[in-house]
Model the fold of this input.
Amino acid sequence: MSLQSLQETAPLLTAMSIDGIEFLESVATEIQFPKGALIFDEDQTAGAFYLIANGKIGLEVSMLAREAHLIETLGPGELLGVSWLFPPYRWSWRARAMVATDVVAFDAEKTRRQCDKDPDFALHIYRTVAEEAVQRLHATRIRVLDLFPGSES
Amino acid sequence: MAARVIDSSGLESLLTALRRSGYDLIGPTVRDQAIVYDHVSGTDDLPRGITDTQEAGHYRIEERSDESLFGFNAGPSSPKDHLYPSHDELFSARREDGRIRFTATVHPNSPRFAFIGVRACELAAIAIQDRVLLGTEAVDLGYSSRRAGAFMVAVNCVEAGGTCFCDSMGTGPRATEGFDLVLTEVTPGAEYVIETGTSRGAQLLASIESLPAGPAEEQRVECGISNAVRQMGRRMETDGLQALLVDNPEHPRWDQVGDRCLTCGNCTMACPTCFCSTTEDRVTLDGEALRSRRWDSCFGLDFSSLHGHSVRASARSRYRQWLTHKLGTWHDQFGMSGCVGCGRCITWCPVGIDITEEVAAMRGQVS
Amino acid sequence: MLPRSFRLTAKSQETPDTFTLVFEDPEHGEVRFRPGQFMMIYVFGVGEVPISIAGNPHKTHDLILTVRGVGAVTNAICALDPGMVVGARGPYGSGWPLAAAKGRDLIIVTGGIGIAPLRPAIIETLSRRDDFRDLSLIYGARTPTDLLYKDDLLGWESSADIDVEVTVDRASSEWWGDVGLVTRLLPRVRFNPPNTAAFVCGPEVMMRVVARDLTARGVPTQNVYLSLERNMKCAVGFCGHCQFGRDFLCRTGPIRSFHDLAERMRVDEI
Ligand SMILES: Cc1cc2nc3c(=O)[nH]c(=O)nc-3n(C[C@H](O)[C@H](O)[C@H](O)COP(=O)(O)OP(=O)(O)OC[C@H]3O[C@@H](n4cnc5c(N)ncnc54)[C@H](O)[C@@H]3O)c2cc1C
Ligand code: SF4
Ligand code: SF4
Ligand code: FES
Done:
């Protein structure tokens, strides 16, 4: 499949080499999740990672005795999934489509193998994931301050 | 009108004439072991033969070896206490016909004060408060009416105290403006050179007995003033001071002074220019609501309170706010320094924090 | 300096602790204001506090305020019943610089009660939509329950004139909006950084990260406006409480450009 339409919005694809894009296209599948669909769940093997084309995905944490808590939402251009890149390659959270959502899924194992073979490609992948993770870490730290007044959820 | 000379009975007549014209005389007098501004009726109430010694955190009154009436320096109070009293009612409100009827507290009969013995630094402080409280957008009504009626009999300092530095701040020891009459005590308790600043001052002077001042008397005025300049107990270098403070909010000196400061607010209460206030609301037994203004201090924790916390929680930040405002941002806000060099904040600080020393330290001139 | 008497004509509950109140002054009529200006609201015998005007700047007969009850005076305001009276003087402050946003993309970023002073600005920009290019609102709250102006939000969301992104800090899986910090939504809205203005109002830390993020993306610091909050007792430059470095925020108005504020916002406890 072609990733061209996503190249402008997705940090993963901007500045990636032509070879890199070609590789990703070779392991990509388009998927449409209907509203409410479970994309992956805590502890499952992380067999793919996703680029969101349209829609909205919620990361949830199961609260066992009560309804699940939404901890973060992700939208167009954003990367879903970090756990696929690091052992033990298992998901930490649950991901669910909050509205009808189009994603591109990339095969995790093949991408990891490509990283072993191609250091430039690997650098780009790790850098993108690290930048994304750092941004989310910063945002999470601010949220820990609990700045806004109000009620419990 | 050229300078004249009066003797002690001339001074008495002057005070009497002011009283007769309906002025409420406010002058220096001894109370609770300090020389303060209070109601006086004549020269007998003035601190004859009394002086003060002042140092950082130290104030004592002592007897002089002469009969001088003005042989002392700035005391714990200043004309601010009368022109901008620590409590002042702003308005009253009543519920009436389904609305609140507000009535501004007017001060038509507020006493017309005649201040006796006001020093150059105090006149400068009044000019600063004028700038703040008689601003263009809003006017403090109480201040404005008391200020408008006030008559100023100033005194040039011929001696300076241990914490004085008006010379550094360019505000004294010679009174140059803001007075109706200005005296220089050329012979302690006996002889005063008197000059006029306004036509009503001149009119008053014309109504009492006086002699023209000759070159000898004028010479003694100059000598006295130079003597005061020589005696300045403190000095402060003002060049670039504004930027020094504003640009150094993280200077380590703030930590040191913050460790010493008790945040008691004595300095702001004693300072003749500090104007910060808060408001108080209460309801009387007959259902009237009163709102008044009360002096406040930037050293108080509540001063900067927002819901649930204060912006300036540490003593360091509160001292920094005070000093940076006084000598720095005051220029941005009012086009002048907020300090006239009277030394009160030094004398009345229980731990002897010295504004001039803090400035010198910021400049790296004190270890 | 004397307040006018205003009567409460309507009141609605926005969240458990926040109410929107509609007042009128039958005797003197309207209160004309610029979006972002505030009033000093006096509760009989209790005290006086600054509250932003939250109404429509073209419907000035009503004085509309949104108040969160946090202490003596604000709780007393929230406890008023229709027919009861308060005092109000103002408006004070200078308002949002709509002129500076003219011809540009405008991003409004706000959190918590910070949306109150921006509501008139949103209404105003929508009423002369052609003056601006892309218009977006990013609004953060603690939980979905804490969102103010839910009806307005629904209306704005369904309009093509403004892109509305709403996010909360915590939510159950029922929530349809976003979860995360407001800055995470910046990549979702359209703006051309060099030709963008931003109006930001919320907790100071939030405003700092938003301003930093916007300027890192290329929005000029002169075009990013924040609304600061300081204790205010007089609103006319007498009481000294509202000082923020060299400014009396009551006189300059609490809305300042990040260009002007950045240095001071780095100083703790200023
Ligand atoms: C320009 C401006 C606009 C505002 N607009 C709104 C608004 O639209 N809606 C709203 O709900 N709130 C608004 N606020 C905040 C509101 O003024 C405070 O919540 C209110 O002053 C709290 O007073 P209180 O007596 O209820 O609380 P208390 O905690 O009992 O007040 C104690 C003291 O702290 C001061 N104080 C406490 N919190 C604040 C604060 N956050 N800001 C300034 N002074 C404070 C009070 O004046 C009082 O002196 C605004 C503040 C400012 C400066
Ligand atoms: S700061 Fe100190 S020296 Fe200066 S005017 Fe005030 S009290 Fe006097
Ligand atoms: S400087 Fe001195 S007088 Fe002023 S608040 Fe601190 S301890 Fe009190
Ligand atoms: S609120 Fe009083 S000086 Fe600004």
Summary: Chain B has 13 helices and 16 strands. The first helix of chain B runs from residue 8 to 20. Chain B touches chain C through 51 residues (CB under 8 Å). Residues 108 and 145 of chain B are 7 Å apart (CA to CA).
